[in-house]
Specification:
Blueprint (H helix, E strand, L loop, with lengths): L3 E5 L3 H12 L3 E6 L10 E4 L1 H9 L3 H6 L2 E3 L2 E4 L5 E5 L5 E5 H10 L6 E3 L14 E4 L13 E12 L7 E5 L2 E7 L5 E8 L9 H11 L5 H9 L6 E7 L7 E2 L2 E3 L2 H4 L8 H18 L3 H30 L5 H22 L9
Helix pairs in contact: 1-4, 1-8, 2-8, 8-9, 9-10
Length: 354
């Protein structure tokens, strides 16, 4: 079926959903509270399933041109010793968030995105056959609020390039380094909240990063020394409790509005792209909007709920305050069960805090 749709949010999910619905013959309007698109940003890992979704949107080749392809990576100890090697059946394409958003936005017709038009609640949506709620973890269309993970993420980029993906696990904290896809190096840190000072000023943030990762191996030290404190993104991490449904009436929750997860699997943006394609497919097959939305909910809710649970576990294990022995044992257990879950997680053992 075809009809009219209002998409709330011009992030990755909203833009991808708009593109998918337009290709399926829908009339689409995107409402976004920001006055202009986001530029720049740290790297997002596009796993093979996400690249397949981008191919369905006729955008895969454009993203490949703006990305750095990687296959596998390493989890290290703070002294640089290899704790685990992780790999996959296909390449991960690392692309900056800004480049991915620009690719998606440029694929829409002029005027499809209404910048500076916030939607404050369900009653604020124009009349349409379908509403796609892609307005993030604090969605105004969802009754349940986020739940804290007890960790704080820092992220940014530094000049120069690296050729490998690494993540270093220490007591109560981790530090990741990846290519960024635009000639820079992407870095991220995840730290137990009690270890992080409440002062959010750039100077305090820089000092905290130096103290938290003092004495770690040369790769981490070089990145920390190059960090521009003014360019650091810092945020407390949360995820969503499992929802009974991603659909209410004519409204479909999508991406972080439906299944915001800890960043430790690097799957948030990927699953959002899969949501967008699955929604358009379900509506195309369904005889009406209600049937299409039931199909979408049935297809996307079970796998994303599993990923939310697994991401929460990895967030807790990777920043555990206990000794290295229990942490390393837990890591080996996760790596043991991951291959059996790969159809659901798409080889999700290289991470990035989107």
């Amino acid at each position: 079926m075809r009809g009219s749709a209002v998409v709330v949010g011009a992030g990755i999910g909203g833009l991808a959903a708009a593109r998918a619905l337009l290709l399926a013959g829908w009339r689409v309007q995107v409402r976004e509270r920001s006055d202009a698109p986001t530029t720049g940003g740290t790297a997002l890992g596009m796993w093979p399933q996400a690249m397949a979704a981008l191919d369905r949107l006729d955008l895969g080749d454009a993203v490949r041109l703006r990305s750095a392809a990687q296959r596998g990576g390493q989890i290290l100890r703070p002294d640089g010793a290899v704790l685990a090697r992780v790999g996959g059946r296909g390449s991960v394409h690392l692309v900056s968030r800004g480049d991915l958003l620009a690719t998606l936005a440029d694929s829409l017709p002029d005027g499809a995105i209404r910048w500076g038009h916030p939607v404050r609640g369900p009653a604020d949506v124009p009349e349409a056959d379908l509403v796609v709620a892609a307005d993030g973890i604090h969605s105004v269309f969802r009754p349940a609020g986020p739940r804290p993970l007890g960790t704080v993420a820092f992220r940014g980029t530094v000049p120069g390039t690296v050729s490998t993906v690494t993540e270093t696990w220490g007591r109560g904290r981790l530090f990741g380094i990846t290519p960024n896809g635009d000639g820079a190096t992407n870095w991220f840190a995840c730290v137990r909240a009690e270890r992080v000072p409440t002062d959010r000023s750039p100077g305090t943030t820089a000092a905290a990063l130096r103290e938290l990762f003092d004495g770690w191996h040369d790769g981490v030290a070089a990145v920390v020394d190059a960090v521009d404190p003014a360019g650091v993104d810092r945020r407390r991490l949360s995820d969503l409790p499992p929802l009974a449904t991603y659909v209410r009436g004519r409204v479909a929750l999508l991406g972080d509005a439906a299944h915001a997860m800890a960043p430790n699997l690097g799957r948030g943006a990927c699953e959002t792209l899969l949501d967008a394609v699955a929604l358009a497919d379900a509506l195309t097959v369904g005889q009406d909007v209600d049937e299409g939305l039931r199909r979408y909910d049935r297809d996307r809710r079970p796998p994303t709920r599993r990923l939310v649970r697994l991401a929460r576990v990895v967030n807790r294990v990777s920043t555990a305050e206990g000794g290295a022995g229990p942490r390393d044992l837990a890591l080996r257990g996760l790596l043991t069960v991951t291959p059996g879950r790969r159809r659901a997680t798409d080889e999700s053992t290289v991470r990035d805090p989107h």
